[in-house]
Amino acid sequence: MSSPTAPARRIPDHGRPLWRRVLLTREMAIVALLVIVAVVAMSTIRGFGQPITLTFLLLDVTPILLIALPMTLVMVTGEIDLSVGSMVGLSSVVTGALVQMHVPFGLAALAALIVGLVGGAFNGLLVTAVGLPSLAVTIGTLALFRGIAVGILGTTAVTDFPSEWRALAQANIHGTTIPYIMFPFAILLAIFAVLLHLTPFGRGIYAIGLSKDAARFSGVHVDRTKLILFVLSGLVAAFAGIFYTLRFGSARGDNATGLELQVIAAVVLGGVSVFGGRGRLYGVVAAVLLIGTLSSALRLANVTSDVINIITGVLLIVSVVAASVLNWLQNRRRRPKQSPPAVAVTTAG
């Protein structure tokens, strides 16, 4: 007679319900805060709800939106790229210098993109092949790229760009208040979202951020992945530099100074861990729009730039501290409770 077999245990796919995994996240908190700030600004600040405000808001945050896409992937691996602001300035100068030499704008822009690709590969090789920390490498190339940019043009500025290209950079989609630059941004957003969230390459990025050694033993090409991400970072920063040049109609060696700090602040505020292994692109996009909306609203309210920087810094610090506190509380809840030690009872004979 055969013994009855126990029913097979079914292990759930996730430890929490879907609605909690979707809604109760740091990224959704940023999205909710963005909506609240926008609604409050439109109802209390005169002129914020005008269509032209949305146009200038999107034009202002576009360089940050573009660079934040590859920066998110880089920081998920536990690395960082501080040279992106200088690469924006260098690509702007390369474009301006070539246009000044009567090179067609299309070829000048292509040369700037190649410079961004080479600069990103240089960063990636120093990090992967040489084994240097990305923080030290990109601090060095931040100064290097900026120095080359200033050395090419000095204190002069190039402003004679083709009017049709400048108009295209500032034009809106017909019948809307959305600039045309949102088209390439939407394409890049879709590419990076699929790459990070829906491919084995993206899962390898998260694995590297959680544990580089474990990822390598799991078959992830750690060095190759990081090199590709640094190349993408330099390439997209160069593209942002071309747009920056057309947007303001000027190529200068000091263009986009300090932009890298705004990008990193937005990425961290959007839920990407500074230690790697965590982050989602929609949270980063929402954080960029939140910072841009807050800055635009405060400027319309006649708040000085220094106060705006202070408010942005406080918001970033609060978000980092809140994330650390939430992680501590979650770890405390998951920790198994220790049962009290057993006490031996003896009986008298």
UniProtKB/TrEMBL annotation:
It is found in: Cell membrane. The keyword Cell inner membrane applies. The keyword Transmembrane helix applies. InterPro entries: ABC_transp_permease. Its main location: membrane. Keywords: Cell inner membrane, Cell membrane, Membrane, Transmembrane, Transmembrane helix, Transport. The chain crosses the membrane at residues 28-48, 54-75, 105-128, 135-158, 178-206, 227-246, 258-275, 282-301, 307-329. It is a multi-pass membrane protein. This is Autoinducer 2 import system permease protein LsrD. It comes from Microbacterium candidum.
